[in-house]
Design a protein that fits this description.
Shape: globular
Radius of gyration: 20 Å
Distance between the termini: 30 Å
Oligomer: single chain
Length: about 300
C-alpha cells in the first residue's frame, strides 16, 4: 500500500483512504469533495524543525488555512493544510483517528479528552522487508506530514512514530559533520542508573550491543536519545454529518510529534529507532461543515 508518498506493506486498511479533494482556492471551496467531507474555516498552527535531505533543513512553519474532515464509521481523518489544492501539490498534515467514540467517551466509556495519546503507524503497517510486529496496545492515532509543494522534486512524506532517535540535545536538526543513521545491529536493553529501563520511555537511551568496553578501552559512540509522539484532543466531531449541535461538530486539539521515514526502521529488534526527521508542535480548531459530494464526471 501507499502511506503518503512512501511505499509500505500493510495488513491494515489504507491510511489516507477517502481523503477529501481540495478546492482550487482556500476561500472558495467549490471543487469536488468525497462524500461526507467537511471543509470549513478554522484556526491552527504548526511549527518546528525539519531535517529532510535534499529538501528542507531548519525551521518550519506550515501556516494552515485549509481545514477538512472525513468521517467514516468510527474513524475520522483531519486534514490541516496550507492552501486548498490537492494533497499531491500541497504541504499539510493528515491525522487519522481509529476510534472517535472511544476518545469522546460515548456511551459508558470515560472520555480521553485532555489525555496525551500515543501516535504511531497504524497496526500492521511496515516498510518492505520488515516483519509485522505484534503490538499489545497499538496507538489509535496516526499522523503524516506531506511536503509535495516544498519538496516538489521528490515525493516526501514523514510519519509520527512511537519511537525515534534524536540528537543528544533532543533536537532533530542536522549536525554539521555528523553522520546519517547508524547501521542496523543488535541492541542490549536500555539501562538507567544500572537498572533496566523502559525502552518506550521518551527519555530512554539505548546503547549498542557490545558497547560495554574495558576500563582501558576508548569510549563507544554516544547512545541515541529516544523521543515519542503524542496528540491531545479537547473535542472531536461525533461523526454524524447531519449533526446540528455545534459543540458536537468541533474538532480541537494539540500535538507534539517526532517524525521519521519508516523505511529507516530496522527489521526486528536490530538497531536504534529511525533517525528523527522533524519535530513539530501545533494546534487546530475547526467545526465540521458538510461539503459537496464528489463529481467524477462533468
Amino acid at each position: 500500500m501507499r502511506l503518503g508518498h512512501a511505499t509500505l506493506q500493510s495488513n491494515a486498511r489504507p491510511f489516507r483512504s477517502r481523503a477529501c479533494a481540495g478546492a482550487v482556492s482556500a476561500a472558495a471551496f467549490v471543487a469536488a469533495l468525497a462524500p461526507g467531507c467537511s471543509l470549513s474555516d478554522g484556526q491552527g498552527d504548526v511549527t518546528g524543525t525539519l531535517n529532510v535531505p535534499e529538501c528542507w533543513s531548519g525551521k518550519f512553519e506550515l501556516k494552515p488555512d485549509f481545514f477538512a474532515g472525513v468521517p467514516y464509521k468510527k474513524t475520522l481523518q483531519l486534514r490541516i493544510q496550507s492552501g486548498g489544492d490537492y494533497e499531491s501539490f500541497s504541504d499539510g498534515i493528515s491525522i487519522l483517528i481509529d476510534d472517535v467514540p472511544q476518545i469522546r467517551g460515548d456511551g459508558s466509556r470515560p472520555s480521553l479528552y485532555g489525555v496525551p495519546l500515543a501516535v504511531s503507524l497504524p497496526p500492521g503497517v511496515t516498510p518492505p522487508g520488515v516483519p509485522v510486529p505484534a503490538v499489545a496496545s497499538p496507538a489509535g492515532v496516526h499522523l503524516t506530514l506531506y511536503l509535495a509543494r516544498s519538496c516538489h522534486t521528490q515525493n516526501v512524506a514523514l510519519y509520527a512514530l512511537d519511537r525515534v532517535s534524536v540528537n543528544a540535545d533532543g533536537s532533530c536538526d542536522a549536525v554539521a559533520g555528523g553522520t546519517e543513521p547508524r547501521a542496523c545491529q543488535a541492541l542490549q536493553p536500555a539501562t538507567v542508573d544500572g537498572g533496566a529501563a523502559d525502552a518506550a520511555s521518551p527519555d530512554a537511551t539505548v546503547p549498542e550491543a557490545g558497547a560495554a568496553a574495558d576500563a582501558g578501552a576508548s569510549a563507544s559512540a554516544p547512545a541515541p536519545t529516544i523521543r515519542s509522539s503524542t496528540v491531545t484532543f479537547t473535542s472531536l466531531f461525533d461523526g454524524d454529518p447531519d449533526e446540528d449541535i455545534a459543540a458536537k461538530r468541533l474538532n480541537e486539539g494539540t500535538f507534539d510529534v517526532y517524525l521519521a521515514d519508516p523505511r529507516d526502521i530496522c527489521p526486528g529488534s536490530l538497531g536504534p529507532p529511525p533517525r528523527c526527521r522533524g519535530h513539530l508542535t501545533g494546534s487546530f480548531k475547526f467545526y465540521f461543515q458538510r461539503g459537496r459530494p464528489a463529481q467524477p464526471f462533468p
